[in-house]
Amino acid sequence: MVVDLHILDVILIAWMDSIIGSVGRLGKVKVRNDDDLIDRMNHLYTTGILIIFTVVVSARQYVGDPIRCWCPAQFTSAHVEYTNNVCWISNTYYVDMQDQIPVAHNKRKEKELGYYQWVPVVLLLQALLFYLPCIIWRLLNGQSGINVDRIVSVASDAQYESPENRTRNIKYVVRHMDRCLDNQRETRHSCCVRLRHILSANLSLLCGRRYGNYLVAVYFLVKIFYIANVIGQLFLLDSFLGSGYRIYGWQVLEDLVEGNDWTASRRFPRVTLCDFEIRQLPNLNRYTVQCVLPINLFNEKIYIFLWFWLVFVSMLSCYSFATWIFHMIFPTTRIQYVRKFLKIMDRIGSTPDKKLANRFTVEYLRHDGVFTLRLIGKNSSDIVVAEIVSGLWDMYRSKKSIQIRSNGHDTEGEDV
Hints:
Mean pLDDT: 80
Strand order of the largest sheet: 1-5-4
Shape: elongated
Membrane topology: Multi-pass membrane protein
Protein name: Innexin
Helix content: 55-70%
Number of domains: 2
Organism: Octopus sinensis (East Asian common octopus)
Pfam families: Innexin
Number of helices: 14
Family: Belongs to the pannexin family.
């Protein structure tokens, strides 16, 4: 039996080492560039933190001694081991040292702690929930016809390349975006189709690939998922841990300000009580023992950190969502954003150029094109965005010139 336990310990340690190695290699994995920093705080950094916490708690539970109970003197070592195991798998309960232990067992039941065995499972579930919106985003954005990750990756790498490679990368991004934007065009021409496109471009009332705002609509939906997830997890932990966890951080801050012992928490007690029965024919003997939960030292620090981290991430996620809404919903902000880069590159100056720049933004780039440019800016630099906008602008003007010559008249000559 001793040999079997030793083999089990070796297997568990090897398993933990493999997990830690996987987490350690997480930093070497190439990060995709199809979202912004706040999104990565949700699906990458928070998920990594939760996995590390899972490894720490699991190592303590399955390799160390998560509980030790003070047993009666007549207990043998086998009795002590049995007591530790039965008190771990059954829920212990907490009664303050200054209070009397309730006589009624239903009163003791009300004070039970039923979370500590399930902490690793819940942490892994939280990690999955944080990564789920990212999976949805990557599944859906591929249906847009715009390879966002490829475009942003090449544009981001361009800022570190030599001048020749930089120029080649910028030209590649410009051609790729132009083909993607053309692929989204509506091939039908009718009054209803034009009306729907006007409503989509100016009021954002309709969504779809052909309206040029599919990516933006999906991205906003995923942003809402991120916000709902991070706020919902505070309530999930409140239900899991009990005792008003959603205000736990404020109570810790209040204790720190008032100079109280903030570690003396009833949520994560170190010393608990355990009731169990031993059947010794023909009698059923009841025992109440006092147990130490060293694992709660880790749980307390983990969940204090998680409270502040979740609040921090939820605030940033809400701010990011509001910022994206402001930048993408209103046509004026999109036009000003594109005009800024055209002015930097000395591409517009006269009034006809400014009018054409409006059409370039609303009709050519549309929502998804401007959205892709903003993602490039968030993952690289404004200089790269300016060069890409300049290349798209030159391509757009050349197309307009070819269209005018093919029509054989100069009705739009004042805009070119």
